């Protein structure tokens, strides 16, 4: 049976992706939400002028500044929010219990879920970049090194978010409570991690708290790709710290993997 784990997991990616796009609330709150928020921020704050780091240093538009944060938020929503709510709901409505009675391996099941996150997150990021460049006139990086950084931050961020979403799915007591449990956590992380608010204006203690979680590092990694190098002075340590970005994302990936392995059950805890 083990020889079929990967093929079955690969086949479930298509199944999970179709199910995702057939769910209007998932599409709106995880797929389109960052694009809508970028449009709102750009329309609401562009009248105030460009964002600058110092006199004499060329500034950037509001949309250009917030784009990296929205890319990071998209990864978090696609992985953590989407999977945590989805899996908790499948536990609550008995879907997982029925799957547990089939030859389906948990590994194949999670390969399908994680693969779906990669597919949807990639499509979301591509659409967000396309809208940013065409509708908002945001300049894209021209150096190959910047896109290489984008690639590894994106892959690590999506993988980490997916595994943390699987781990978080064990917290809600029922499928009905999943949204109430998961969304506040995700929303708070977005506010303290430099997605909706400029990270440099947050209190130092809040920056320190955000630094313990992966979203801050995903956003910082994306800012290193899309913002001029002069903007690194707005970071907490005045540098992009890509080494620490990789360290924290890998660390949280391992945490998510371990917790997922220890907590996953085909049935609810109270069943």
TrEMBL record:
Residues 25-270 form the ABC transmembrane type-2 domain. InterPro entries: ABC-2_transporter, ABC2_TM, ABC2_TM_bact-type, ABC_2_transport. The chain crosses the membrane at residues 26-45, 65-88, 117-140, 146-171, 178-199, 242-264. It holds the Pfam family ABC2_membrane_3. It is a multi-pass membrane protein. Its main location: membrane. Signal peptide: none annotated. Keywords: Antibiotic resistance, Membrane, Transmembrane, Transmembrane helix. It is found in: Membrane. This is ABC-2 type transport system permease protein. It comes from Agromyces ramosus. The lineage of its organism: Bacteria, Bacillati, Actinomycetota, Actinomycetes, Micrococcales.
């Amino acid at each position: 049976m083990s020889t079929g784990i990967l093929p079955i997991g690969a086949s479930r990616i298509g199944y999970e992706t179709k199910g995702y796009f057939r769910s209007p609330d998932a599409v709106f709150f995880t797929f389109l939400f960052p694009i809508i928020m970028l449009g709102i921020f750009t329309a609401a704050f562009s009248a105030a002028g460009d964002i600058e780091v110092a006199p004499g240093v060329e500034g950037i538009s509001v949309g250009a500044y917030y784009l990296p944060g929205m890319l990071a938020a998209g990864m978090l929503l696609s992985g953590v929010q989407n999977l945590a709510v989805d899996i908790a709901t499948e536990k609550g409505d008995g879907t997982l219990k029925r799957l547990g009675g089939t030859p389906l391996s948990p590994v194949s099941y999670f390969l399908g879920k994680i693969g779906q996150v990669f597919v949807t997150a990639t499509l979301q990021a591509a659409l967000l970049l396309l809208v940013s460049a065409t509708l908002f006139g945001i300049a894209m990086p021209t150096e190959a090194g910047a896109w290489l950084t984008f690639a590894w931050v994106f892959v690590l961020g999506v993988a980490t978010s997916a595994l943390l979403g699987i781990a978080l799915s064990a917290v809600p007591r029922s499928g009905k409570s999943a949204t109430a449990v998961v969304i506040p956590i995700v929303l708070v992380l977005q506010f303290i991690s430099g997605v909706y608010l400029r990270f440099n204006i947050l209190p130092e203690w809040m920056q320190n708290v955000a630094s313990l979680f992966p979203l801050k590092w995903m956003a910082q990694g994306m800012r290193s790709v899309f913002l001029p190098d002069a903007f690194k002075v707005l970071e907490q340590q005045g540098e992009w710290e890509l080494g620490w970005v990789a360290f924290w994302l890998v660390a949280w990936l391992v945490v998510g993997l371990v917790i997922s392995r220890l907590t996953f059950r085909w049935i609810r805890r109270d069943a």
